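Self-study notes.
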Amino acid sequence: MKIFLDANVLVSVLNKEYPLYTYSSRILSLASHPNFEIYTSPLCLAIAFYFAEKKHKTQLAKQKIDLLCQYLKIAGNSSKGVLDTLFNKRIHDFEDGLKYYAAKSASCKCIITENAEDFYFSEIEVLNCKEFFNRYLLN
């Protein structure tokens, strides 16, 4: 299953933000599981870096992003995704549109975010970390 991690999920892992870290770290660990492909986007990595840098300083934040990039697949933010975001009248937040079209370009089946309401326009399943964990990992 291909899943897309939003920036807020990455931030929770990089900064060990509890109680979300309990779920987000387990979801991120699926990157080594043969049944899952874990994606994010350059935009999500940039946002995650910003918040990691605020907490851990630049050098450690870069090391953390480098480590993430060794395990995650990176879905592209293409010019098509930019245009699709601009012209989709249902999308009001440009940033969320870019994330959505990155996930869509990678054929992700689920977007994991703590702000599911931001993806009200999504044709892809959107779950928070706990919902994903309960639906796909507890069976």
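Second protein, same conventions, sequence then structure:
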Amino acid sequence: MSRIYRFYIYGILGAIGGLIGWQISNILGLSFTDNLYLSEVLIGAIIGGTIGFFIGLGEGFATQNVLFGIRKSILSLLLGALGGALALPLAEGIFLFIGGEVWSRPIGWAIFGLLTGLATGITGGAQLWKGGLGGLIGGALGGVLLELARSLFADPLLGKAAGLILLGLSTGVFIALIVFMLSQVWLEVTEGKLRGMEFILDKFLKKDAPAATIGSSPLKADIVLTDPGIAPQHAILKGEETYFTLKDISMSGTLINNRKTEYSHLRDKQRIRMGNTEMIYHEKR
């Protein structure tokens, strides 16, 4: 999956999440409990959780692996729901506190975006703060677009629907955009079923960081390659502060620049082949 296509997928899925979140919140309304504050918390959690869930599915689409996508989307749902539960009452509280200034509401949605972005960092290879920053920017911009949509549409329901679609789209796009703009080390798949897919390795680079396992199993590997020629756990990447080492742990072997290797110090632009999949190792200094 190319970067542009990833931005597209994250944005579209976020928008779908916003639309479904709007539909559920529209059915329930803001008075389905006797406590207005509790209703806002629950509606915010539903909207945030729905958007977070669909953004999390983006990695499943990218890797063409349902289990990996579900694992990531559940975490995104939980953190997105927490963010939404905080965002909606906080946005309304700030709005009322400062005398009804519309610009205050995006602050709450920025917090939602922050937590949704952090969820992508926990299950992906990017450092947590990069996903969080992307979500923060996307949530804040989405909050602005949400308020604009509300003011532009005569029908408040249509305005809310358009606004939540834009909120989900903005959050998804900026999470993907900021993570990739700031990435330092990644693997690019150039041959195989996942051709065009890129796996960011930043959070594994430090010497004290956990190793990253490359394999075909979504339950056993950190970098999941859908390829029958790749073992469930095929190789291990270990960060050494400024570079990675790769250790083959498979029966079928790993090639680096067409030479079979058991252990290697990776260098920029080297080609790594496992099964029917070939990747290029990239470092950005």
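Instructor comment on the second fold: The longest helix spans residues 66-97.
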